[in-house]
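User: Structure tokens for both sequences below?

Assistant:
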Amino acid sequence: MSNLLPAEYADLEKFADWILPTEKERYAKRLASSMDELQAFYDEAFPRLEAAVPYLKTVSLEDISEEDRNLTYLFCSLVNVTFPVEVWRQARVPDSGASMVDCIVEPAI
């Protein structure tokens, strides 16, 4: 496998399918995933988040590397799965039926 993530986070490359640049893609991936898949991603990525935040704060957005950009997208996906794993125990927002809220503007990385 090529270097999708910085070397110190290479163990998370097995979750490369969570490297998604948009909120819409992350939400669709969440809905298409089983709770076991969400839990597996959460269990391995969440403990790494505390170290990743100060690391990513040292990265300049002006010349961000592809590996660092991917790491940022991966942790954006982690944020997307925290409520389903920690609170709802399901991928969809409870009692939301078929309703959807689309993010129309998001930060560019």
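Moving on to the next sequence.
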Amino acid sequence: MEKSKPVMGETVEALEARTPLRFPREMVVSLLALAIAWEILSKFVPPFVIPSWARIGKSVLGLPADFIAITLARVAVALALSFVLGLGLAIAMYLSTGVERYGKPIVRLLMAVPVVCWILFAVLWFKWVEFRIAFVLIVVCGPVFLIDFLDGMRGVPRELRDMLRSFRPSRTHFFTKLILPATLPVILTSWKINLSLAIRVVTIAELVGAVTGIGYGLVVAQELFSVADVFAWTLVLVAILFAAEAVVTRVEERMLRWRT
């Protein structure tokens, strides 16, 4: 069976997961229909409301590439730090009931604070813009990593844990040979969730205070009342998110090949 051919009754999500770097026919048709409808509508509506694809394409070509690179670098660094922090705290909570009992309520509290409030706190507390953006991303994405990892570790079957403990493994072997491999599907799913979350959060954070990045580009487009530029930046964000999710899904497919 070829991977790109849909199976009878298979959902679009399942087909996308099975062929992450290819586009299912249903997706291509629906997006093409939306693009045609948009172009037709742009003929009857003023361009400051719905610009044509030609205007949006011209804006895309004129966007500063360094803004895109800066935003991607901010997301990559913050996600890496959030991952390390979340994994370390999840292991600490897994090993110590006391750490979990006292630490989990604080994590829940951090997750309940709206992103806008974290951005305002960062502006009030920190002077350096890069530190503000990194702080907001880490405090939003870190707890998500932590909770996902902890739930994944708790989900490892007790029979497997007892079986491995019968061999008297060291703590390092217990985690590297059982817990982390068994938690790998959860870790990869958490990465996909946090990628989407981080791209949206960094854009909002860059709207306030930053003088570079995609968020700042959106601010400039808004000040110039350039609707085409706003749509161009939006397309760039969507393309980045799709590409990042496709890469993670591809990695997931390779690392979890044993499940198929």
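User: Anything stand out in the second?

Assistant: Residues 77 and 233 are 21 Å apart (CA to CA).
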